[in-house]
């Protein structure tokens, strides 16, 4: 299965030799709730469904990563989003329909 970013307006997909990384929605319930709020997604989304959803590295700043540059800090949430005029029309709902 191809990994895609679930952020509305982002069309990033996992590709060979790409520098874009993909991060899963946190499993810790408090962090997950914050991420879903920031992503404007339903906070009651089943955890099983969230396991297949990813957010790409383009939605995080360099300061959001640990010193290795690979892992997100525990307090990090996605903060970089395209403006509505830049969005291509993708939505988390559309992505979930593509995934299943």
Automatic annotation (TrEMBL):
Residues 77-100 are annotated as: Disordered. GO terms for cellular component: nucleoplasm. Residues 1-81 form the THAP-type domain. It is found in: Nucleus, Nucleoplasm. Gene3D superfamilies: THAP domain. Its main location: nucleus. Transmembrane segments: none annotated. It holds the Pfam family THAP. The keyword Membrane does not apply. Residues 77-93 have a biased composition (Polar residues). One of its GO terms (molecular function) is DNA-binding transcription factor activity. Keywords: Cell cycle, Coiled coil, DNA-binding, Metal-binding, Nucleus, Transcription, Transcription regulation, Zinc, Zinc-finger. GO terms for biological process: endothelial cell proliferation; regulation of transcription by RNA polymerase II. It comes from the Eukaryota. SUPFAM superfamilies: Glucocorticoid receptor-like (DNA-binding domain). Belongs to the THAP1 family. DNA-binding transcription regulator that regulates endothelial cell proliferation and G1/S cell-cycle progression. Specifically binds the 5'-[AT]NTNN[GT]GGCA[AGT]-3' core DNA sequence and acts by modulating expression of pRB-E2F cell-cycle target genes. PANTHER family: SI:DKEY-228B2.6-RELATED, THAP DOMAIN-CONTAINING. This is THAP domain-containing protein 1. It comes from Cyprinus carpio (Common carp).
């Amino acid at each position: 299965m191809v990994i895609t970013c679930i952020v509305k307006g982002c069309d990033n997909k996992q590709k060979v030799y790409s520098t874009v990384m993909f991060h899963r929605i946190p499993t810790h319930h408090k962090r997950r709730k914050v991420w879903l709020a920031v992503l404007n997604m339903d906070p009651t989304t089943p955890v099983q469904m969230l396991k297949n959803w990813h957010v790409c590295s383009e939605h995080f700043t360099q300061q959001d990563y640990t010193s290795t540059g690979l892992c997100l800090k525990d307090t990090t949430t996605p903060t970089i989003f395209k403006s509505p005029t830049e969005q291509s029309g993708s939505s988390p709902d559309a992505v979930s329909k593509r995934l299943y």
